Amino acid sequence: MKIIKLRKFFVILTLVITLASIIVISIRGFKFSIEFTGGSLLEISYAQGERPDIADLREVLEGTEFASSLIQPLGDNGFVLKTETLDDAEKNTLVDLLSQTGESMTVERFNSIGPSVGKQLQTKSLYALIGVSLATLLFIAYAFRKVSGIVPSWKYGLIAVGLLVHDILVTVGILTLLSIEVDTLYVVGLLSILGLSINNTVVVFDRIRENLLSQKHISKDEFLSLVGNAVTQTLHRSILMSLTLVFALAALLFVGPDSTKNLSLVLLIGIFVGTYSSILLSSSLLSYMFKESAKK
Fold first, then answer.
1. 278-260-165 Cα angle (round to 5)
2. pLDDT tens digit at each of 296 positions of the chain
3. CA angle, corner 228, sides to 224 and 230, nearest 5?
4. What top-level class would CATH report for the domain 39-113?
5. Scanning 13, 53, 186, 198, which has the fewest C-beta atoms within 10 Å of its C-beta?
6. pTM here?
7. Interacting residues of 122 by C-beta distance below 8 A, sequence separation 6+
8. CA–CA dist 273, 92 (Å, integer)
9. What value, to the nearest 5°, has the Cα angle with vertex 172 and ends 168 and 175?
10. Torsion, Cα of 61, 62, 65, 68 (10° steps)
């Protein structure tokens, strides 16, 4: 019941955090990878213990058309270079320059993506997010139709979609603040967060639905008590499930391969945000929905 009594605090806190996330995103913008903007990616590696410093690579490229290339370490022995789209001749010139940094340098991978492909990825990613939200709204509205006499079933769906939007905005705001690059794994992480977040929310709502099935008329205090009990009954399960994922993702983030670190970070932040919203925010918003329905 303490969660319900503090519902105004949680709602205000959420509004502040969400607004802060929107401001961060608006000011800093997104840092898109070449998968979205178009460009070329070159992955190189060196023999064990022979990898040079990034400064050595920048020195070799200084004064050339590749000077603005983004260089990132990859594992213990490699680098990834991201540049504007290169043709075969430009790619060979870049490889020749980089070969000056060590005799053991080898090219592991080279990919080029056109701007039109990047734009298509952005559009499909947006459609996927919208599709998940609409499917969630319709499913929950249908599943809760039998208790819609107390709170209309579509409002459960509306709250769930609102929580998904909150989870995405806050997660993206934190990632933007950390200057994390937006690539396909980033988008996969966001879509995964939607699934994980809605799972906890549905668990709480389903327990409320079970408790409401035998109720036709209910007072405000009784409804708040019922919601509070539902949260308490599902709290242990929700936290344990989230902690299990947190431990696995933390291990992947700190000792896993570099290629999955961003995905692990996106999921890790999203789980914390989603657990907060599904436990504390969902019940708070539902109590306000009941109050509005009771007045009508």
1. 30
2. 566 777 788 888 889 999 999 999 999 888 877 777 778 888 888 888 788 888 888 888 888 888 878 888 887 788 888 888 888 888 888 888 888 887 788 888 888 876 665 677 777 777 877 887 788 778 777 777 766 666 677 777 888 888 888 999 999 999 999 988 888 788 888 888 887 888 878 888 888 877 777 666 666 667 777 777 878 888 888 888 888 888 988 888 888 777 788 889 999 999 999 888 888 888 778 777 765 555 55
3. 120
4. alpha beta
5. 53
6. 0.78
7. 32, 36
8. 46
9. 145
10. 90
Count of Cβ atoms closer than 10 Å to residue 35 Cβ? 22
CB-neighbour burial class of residue 292 (10 A; exposed 0-12, middle 13-18, buried 19+): exposed
Which phi and psi angles does 232 have, rounded to 5°?
-65, -40
C-alpha–C-alpha distance, residues 227 and 284, integer Å: 9
Identify the DSSP state of 113.
E
Residue in this structure with the two tokens 């459960």, named with its chain if needed: 156
193, 266 in Cβ contact below 8 A?
Answer: yes
Q: What CATH superfamily classification does 2-30+117-295 receive?
A: Multidrug efflux transporter AcrB transmembrane domain (1.20.1640.10)
Q: Which residues pair with 32 in a beta bridge?
A: 182
Tokens found for residue 138 = 């319709």
Q: How far is CA 170 from CA 177, 193, 216, 222, in A?
A: 11, 12, 37, 33
Burial of 136 (0-12, 13-18, 19+ CB in 10 A): buried
Sheet-wide strand order for 70-74: 70-74, 78-83, 39-45, 106-113
CA distance 111 to 34: 10
Cα separation, 189 vs 203, whole angstroms: 21
On whether the CB atoms of residues 122 and 38 are closer than 8 A, the answer is no
CA distance between the termini of the chain:
25
